[in-house]
Amino acid sequence: METRAADAKSASAGTSLSTGTLALFAIAGLPVGGYVTTLAVYLPNYYTRHLGVGLFVVGLAFFLVRVLDIVFDPILGVIMDSARPRWGRFRPWLAASIPILMVSTWAAYFAPAGVGVVYITFVLLVLYAGYSMCVLAHAAWGTALVAEYHGRSRVYGWIQAMGVIGAIGILLAPIFVPRILHAKMEPIPIQGWFLLIAVPITFGITALFGPEPHQATAAHKRAPMREYLALLKRPDMVRNLAATLLTTFGPAITAPLYLFFFEDARGYTPDQANVLLLIYVVAGLVGPYFWLWVARSFGKHQTIKIAAGCYAVAQTGLLLLPKAHAGEMSIAMFAVGFVASAFAFLLRAMVADICDEVRLETAKDQTALINALQTSVAKFASTVSVFVGYAVLTAFGFKAAEGAANTDLAMWGLQACYLVPPVACVLIGGLCMFGYRLDEKRHGEIREQLHLKEQQGSLAAGLESLGGALEPAAQLNPGE
Fold first, then answer.
1. pTM of the full structure
2. Domain spanning 13-212+222-451 has what CATH number?
3. Residue range 315-332, pLDDT digits in tens
């Protein structure tokens, strides 16, 4: 307990958390990585190929849920900014997401055959509500936990690394569990059990042992709705949201197309496709450490530009390789995953810096709302990608049913959709960073001014308290 309190105090002062404390805090990101992988790649494919739901229906269901989700996240952010639970500002929200995710995960990953758009939409809506609660609470908690410019990149790098570990676990589970049980099993139910076990354990650890950040005086002031809307007029915020939208949508559109692309278009077996995806995910565990080093040398926004150019080259290489060459494709998939790992955690760390700037200029803490805006944009981009990707496949006449024969035009459309939108979107996302001004120097100035204001606020509060203590003495008559 003393170590946790010391870590929270040092974090608020801008110093780094200990590795052990950071691991306990970041471990809640583990099942989130599992959800990202299955919701984007496996669940839509499972509904279409194994439950017989149409491509357009599945894409529409995911799209409708995220349209509602983009409204839900800012509302949740406003509530988080306003509420001050006695057990901590963010940990109660993380804990409250556990039962919501448990029930909705069971309904989504163990769905019966014959389900329609109403069932899928409702279940996904509840699932994403719980997902929003945990992701937003964890992200906003990380923003308040560490004040230093590069320290925040370290925090979100750890969270992303935990997510990668979760993604690796959820990919390996369908490989090893059937072998252990000596039974043929579908991957999705196994992945559902993985999540049902991981969510209460990891969320519980973070909720119980995560350090509570120091709350500045401004954190207790609430902002009216017009000031929340004003956030969208801030140039750096707009650049961040645009980059988040594009660098999320680009790689995300490949997710629902992944199994179709590698199995139907490139000639790999299902097992080979799973191994290639695992290599892509493992690269995301290594990549953040490299990109953190680059960001320390050039700054976060400059690193986003560099990574965008590298991603375009790596993604293009996937189509230049010959079909069914697992060795060369393994290297190419590692390269794509390595580069793609740069975007999410750096953009999240940049949002944390924007939170400080907003708090300095408005004297109001809008941490949860600002993180909610970015979260909703990222989630919207990932789900629109499912709708857009499946709509394109439908337009080209692609047939998703097992054993279906597809025309050359359908296969061409599949490969074009796997290459052009990701490369174009990520490159434009990198261009959004031109003109971004909140670099390390500017953030250092903001932190100094915030520290000075906090000191002045503490001094004023002390003088007020002292004045209250002396007031009764001033009312005494002479000689009393």
1. 0.74
2. 1.20.1250.20
3. 999 989 988 888 999 999
